[in-house]
Structure formats: structure tokens, C-alpha cells
């Protein structure tokens, strides 16, 4: 079996984000492992807890969170992309004196070094663009 890293550039509104989620589920169901999920650029919106989709749509951020927590997957959100888009964890909220944190539980904010590490330690790295 192989180890994969998925880099998600697509927001929850993009079909590419759903494709990435379905691909991740299929990998795990086939016995492969996910070394890391890396959310980059607009993909960081998948880790935002302040999104409320319409009732007739899939709550993609919640679905990502469920997958991450169920399979204990390392889910990294790019710090530069997150800050630029207003997504912060508790430490960043305190650092910038913001009223609240909005990063979903199970995700961590970190830098591009985590993407380099994942690329070096995975058999395959796949990018999901919008």
C-alpha cells in the first residue's frame, strides 16, 4: 500500500474540494494511508468553523473534519493563506487580538515546511486545484 499527501487548493464551494474528499475516502477504503492533508490558498476555507452552507448542500468543512478526526489524519492549514483569509486558531487570535478563533478542531495551522515534509515522506502527492 502507498502513502499519499493531498494538497487542497479549492474552497468548499468548488467541486474540486468534494472530489478531493471523495478521493481521500477511497484511498483509505482501499487500504492506503494519508500522510497529510495540506490546505492551501482558498482550500483553507475547508477548515473554517464559521461557514454555514445552505440546508440542501453538503457541509463540506464538517465532512473534512469528520474524516480527519475519524482517521486521525494530520490536517495542516497554511498559515499565510489562513491569516490572509481570516482563519485563525486560538494562538493566532490572541496574537492579533481578535475576538474569536475559527479553525475547526482537528486542523492545525503551520507553514510550507509541512508541505515539503509531506512531499518527501509520501509515495505520492496529489494537488486538487479549483
Question: What this model shows, in words?
Answer:
The protein is an alpha/beta fold and 130 residues long. The protein contains 5 helices and 5 strands. Strands 4-3-2-1-5 form a 5-stranded parallel sheet, sandwiched between helices. Strand 2, helix 2 and strand 3 form a beta-alpha-beta unit. Helix 1 (15-29) runs parallel beside helix 2. The longest helix has 15 residues, at 15-29. The protein is globular and about 45 Å long. It starts with a strand and ends with a strand. The mean pLDDT is 97.
CATH architecture term: 3-Layer(aba) Sandwich
Helix/strand order? EHEHEHHEHE
Radius of gyration: 14 Å
Write down how many β-strands occur, each being a DSSP E stretch of 2 or more residues: 5
Major sheet: 5 strands, parallel
CATH superfamily: DsrEFH-like
Distance between the termini: 28 Å
The CATH class name reads: Alpha Beta
Number of domains: 1
Proportion of helical residues: 25-40%
Indicate the mean pLDDT.
97
CATH topology value: Hypothetical Protein Ychn, Chain: A
SS field, number of helical segments: 5
Biggest sheet: strands side by side, in what order? 4-3-2-1-5
Which structural class best describes the helix and strand composition? alpha/beta
Outline, from the CA principal axes? globular
User: Which stretches of 5+ consecutive residues score pLDDT under 50?
Assistant: none
As a percent range, the share of strand residues is: 15-25%
Amino acid at each position: 500500500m502507498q502513502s499519499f499527501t493531498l494538497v487542497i487548493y479549492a474552497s468548499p464551494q468548488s467541486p474540486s474540494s468534494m472530489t478531493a474528499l471523495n478521493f481521500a475516502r477511497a484511498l483509505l477504503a482501499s487500504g492506503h494511508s494519508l500522510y497529510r492533508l495540506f490546505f492551501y490558498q482558498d482550500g483553507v476555507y475547508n477548515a473554517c468553523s464559521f461557514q454555514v452552507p445552505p440546508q440542501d448542500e453538503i457541509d463540506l468543512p464538517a465532512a473534512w473534519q469528520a474524516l480527519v478526526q475519524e482517521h486521525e489524519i494530520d490536517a495542516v492549514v497554511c498559515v499565510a493563506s489562513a491569516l490572509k483569509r481570516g482563519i485563525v486558531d486560538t494562538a493566532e487570535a490572541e496574537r492579533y487580538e481578535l475576538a474569536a478563533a475559527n479553525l475547526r478542531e482537528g486542523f492545525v495551522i503551520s507553514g510550507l515546511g509541512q508541505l515539503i515534509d509531506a512531499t518527501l515522506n509520501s509515495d505520492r502527492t496529489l494537488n486538487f486545484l479549483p
